[in-house]
Amino acid sequence: MNDLCTDIGYKSINYFGEQLCGDHVVVVEPSDDTTVVVLSDGLGSGVKASILSTLTSKIISTMLAEELSLEECVQTIAATLPVCSVRGVAYATFTIIHIRNNRVAELIQYDNPHIIVIRDNNFWEYPRTEINIDGKKIFRSTINLHENDLFIAISDGCAHAGIGAAYNFGWKREDIADFMQALSYGGYTAKTLSTVLIEKCDRLYAHQPGDDATACVVRIRKREPMNMLLGPPANRDDDNRMMSLFFSKEGKHIVCGGTTSAIAARFLGKPLKPSLDFVDADVPPIAEIEGVDLVTEGVITINKVLEYAKDYLKDNKQYEHWNFKRDGASLICRMLFEEATDINFYVGRAVNPAHQNPDLPINFNIKMNLVEELSKCLRKMGKRIKVSYF
Known about the structure:
Helix content: 25-40%
Number of domains: 2
Radius of gyration: 23 Å
CATH superfamily of the largest domain: PPM-type phosphatase domain
Distance between the termini: 31 Å
CATH architecture of the largest domain: 4-Layer Sandwich
Strand content: 25-35%
Largest sheet: 6 strands, antiparallel
CATH topology of the largest domain: Phosphatase 2c, domain 1
């Protein structure tokens, strides 16, 4: 097992007027270093398309994760999908990115625009082999992975964006590749890249998409550990043990909470330097301790981080809020969402009397709930999470 890992993000917009998306993305991780990503585009739009794409992506991802052959997958799909009563065909396209051992990517493509690969910040036309399975023309490629490789899978709704308006024949694959190549220099997460791409498509459609459009980005990166300390231990005798374990871990260190930061400063033998600079009126100021990468307030700040995390997993509309601001919650978001791949939480069980006010909302009142909810969100982002309680 090497030190590479996958960062995966995807986003869709629906055909104008439809409540359901006819595209569907499924991500399956049968092991720590193997990932199957399937993007399927169902025939037409609406309910039928959604059913077709969901069945196709679920079947293929499940079978490939169990190491069944592509031929078996295609035959199973043909036998399973319902037949369209109007067109007389059961039809859903698919794009597969199968990461093996974090070393090799197998790309399998049927009737979707070909995957865009950005390597060393340049658009790369990788080799493809054409095969025929049950009359279906399928393209297959095997690529050795490099750090910072970007694999961008799109449905044809992206390639049709702007047709007859901004572009005579839509937004061509090569133009999309140029757009994504320019973004590749920024070191953005896969979620952010897919969001920017789909928002561009939406603008080209004048916010009335003529087709479902989906972008799924797989970014190859090195593992980046991150450590976060929240709250003092229930037993004061455990202060030094908790701090020793926390600071011995590889990676950056975030300390949250007033009492917690005081204990950390005492353990390190360094002064705690608080700030009165309210960058954001809703988030308390940060502080400084030599040897700690970030020191913030506790529950209020983490509650804001959780709010941003939930939005990140949905529409990612608040990205511009936390990506550029310098308050404690925004800084934590950038470190956890964008930098980290493996996150270790060290959570103290000590009860803070200030948090026992019955007039306060429950998600503010209970620190443990915040940690559990945030951990769930981060796992959905593809992070490896370990929580240790003291």
